[in-house]
Specification:
The complex is a heterodimer of chains A (135) and B (380). Chain A is mostly beta strands and 135 residues long. Chain A is 0% helix and 44% strand. In chain A, the strands form 2 sheets. A 5-stranded mixed barrel of chain A has the order 5-6-7-9-8. The termini of chain A are close together. Chain B is globular. In chain B, strand 5 and strand 6 form a beta hairpin. A 9-stranded mixed sheet of chain B has the order 3-2-4-7-1-8-11-10-9, with helices on both faces. In chain B, strands 5-6 form a two-stranded antiparallel sheet. The chains are: A mainly beta (135), B alpha/beta (380). Chains A and B meet through strand 3, strand 5, strand 6 and strand 7 of A and helix 5, helix 6 and strand 5 of B.
Chain lengths: 135, 380
């Protein structure tokens, strides 16, 4: 997974490299609630949501390795999981690094972005993923 | 109340030379025959199919079925609700009869999935989770991992669900996988998504199932009629706070169904639940109150859910062994309940079966399910 930030993101507006790499979500000031990805409106009050920096660190809540033929040009095998974000009460589904380094539930993980797999048009794209290693 | 007066299904498995509509015609014909009913009595058709638009580019197939079976000028409603499409169609037909919109309704679910390069299904191609690699087995594997972590559920307990499922399916001539499988074989089959091996994932299949529903007045003198005591359909909240050791919507739907049927888990003689993967059945045991939270693995191990046990579950073989032609599944579960409640299930008959429950769910969103249905049926 090499970093080549000139590819388009797999999904618009979910991360930013401005300052430290971080996820971008939505925050409703009326309801004091967070969402990822940012919704069009707050599902509770229908008000406008603000873009919010959700940071790039969290705790691994669950993980698995997918060993069948992968979709979207993802590596074989690839790992996915749910991460509890440090910055907001959100548990999000995420791609994990596909290296062989062991990962386990409860481990601290942090965000990276790299060209991984293809987008729905079949073109290389950037995907955010969490990893437990610093390299 | 509403009664089921006809129930039938095609064998589930590979039907390479058949179309969706051809399978639907067969199930419809068999259901009419089962009800000893002239087709002219049918007042509405609820038709469930999920993947026709995606695989074949075919839409609104219900009218193709009614045209092919001479069910002229009746309202036809095409239904899609992921794996709960068939049971949702059933729910809608039952509501239409309760509302007095018709006296007799035909409900059909038909699916064809055995095509080259079918691949893995997802819960919507443009969803962020799908774009990040969420495929159906992943959602279930992530639940299994967390359940094992929190409650100590073991790989052997998971595998036991498949062992039981194959044993039951061996007694069901319409099931797809009828060969017995040992625990060693289940655990040695290739890993799909850790900890789930291939034998712990339901197979894709072709097939159709059909039910004929009627008002109680209409069904009054029909000796083989089965009553629908409750039917519930629910969706979830999806607010990014999921607890992966359960489906929140599973619990909510089951609670409503028990309340409306005026029963509890102790009253059930048989359950057909949505065992898409082994972990699903274990989580549904808990949601249905067949055991306490976290003890689903132990219940699987205990043998209580086998034919002859305290509360037999998925005696048809379930999704794991009967096969899972998506939109037909929710109706095939009800076909099994009807067969059992009529005491016509032969080798796999549950002794003294009087009250039975069908549970189906479909689609994944934010760690919960998109649609969950629970129906409670009883023989008079």
């Amino acid at each position: 997974m090499t970093v080549m930030l000139d590819f388009p993101p797999v999904y618009p507006g979910i991360f930013s490299t401005q300052g430290e790499l971080h996820l971008v979500g939505g925050y409703c000031p009326c309801c004091d609630s967070y969402q990822f990805p940012a919704p069009e409106i707050c599902a509770n009050c229908f008000g406008a949501v603000e873009q919010v920096n959700l940071g790039g660190t969290g705790t691994l809540y669950s993980l698995t390795t997918i060993r069948t033929k992968p979709p979207l040009g993802l590596p074989t095998p690839y790992r996915v999981g749910y991460v509890d974000l440090d910055s907001a009460p959100l548990r999000i589904f995420t791609l994990l690094d596909s290296e062989t380094s062991p990962l386990s539930i409860g481990q601290n993980v942090h965000l990276k972005v790299a060209q991984v797999g293809l987008n729905s048009e079949g073109k290389p794209c950037l995907r955010p993923y969490f990893t437990g290693t610093d390299s | 109340m509403v009664s089921i007066i006809g129930a039938a299904m095609t064998p589930f498995g590979r039907h390479l030379d058949r179309t969706i509509v051809s399978l639907a015609i067969e199930a419809t014909r068999l259901a009419l025959q089962d009800a000893s009913l002239a087709k002219e009595r049918i007042g509405a058709c609820y038709f469930a199919n999920t993947l026709g638009p995606l695989i074949f580019g075919d839409t609104t197939l219900g009218q193709n079925l009614t045209a092919a079976t001479g069910l002229y000028r009746i309202p036809v409603i095409n239904v899609e609700n992921a794996c709960a499409s068939g049971s949702t169609a059933f729910h809608l037909a039952r509501n239409a009869i309760l509302a007095g919109d018709c006296e007799v309704a035909l409900v059909v679910g038909a699916e064809k999935m055995c095509v080259p390069d079918f691949g893995l299904i997802n819960s919507g191609a443009t969803e962020l989770d799908t774009q990040l690699g969420m495929v159906v087995p992943a959602g279930f594997a992530l639940k299994a991992q967390r359940h094992m972590y929190e409650y100590g559920t073991t790989a052997q307990q998971l595998a036991q669900v498949t062992v039981k499922s194959r044993r039951h399916a061996a007694l069901n001539p319409l099931a797809q996988f009828r060969q017995l499988e040992s625990m060693e074989q289940v655990l040695a089959s290739p890993l799909i998504a850790d900890p789930l091996t291939r034998s712990q994932c339901c197979p894709i299949a072709d097939g159709a199932a059909a039910l004929i529903l009627a008002s109680d007045d209409f069904a009054a003198r029909m000796k083989r009629a089965v009553k629908v005591k409750a039917s519930v359909l629910a969706s979830g909240i999806y607010d990014g706070r999921c607890d992966l050791t359960h489906w929140e919507t599973d619990y909510e739907t089951v609670r409503l169904a028990y309340e409306r049927a005026g029963i509890g888990p102790q009253d059930l003689d048989l359950v057909e639940c949505h065992d898409a993967f082994t972990i699903s059945e274990i989580l549904h045991y808990e949601a249905l109150g067949l055991c306490d939270r976290g003890e689903g693995g132990q219940l699987a191990e205990s043998g209580a859910t086998e034919l002859g046990g305290r509360i037999p579950v998925n005696v048809s073989g379930g999704l794991l062994s009967r096969g899972h032609p998506i939109a037909a599944t929710g109706l095939a579960q009800i076909v099994e309940l009807v067969t059992q409640l009529r005491h016509e299930a032969q080798d796999r008959q549950v002794e003294g079966c009087r009250i039975a429950l069908a549970h189906c769910m479909g689609g994944d969103k934010a760690g919960d399910t998109k649609a969950c249905t629970v129906s409670v049926l009883a023989k008079n």
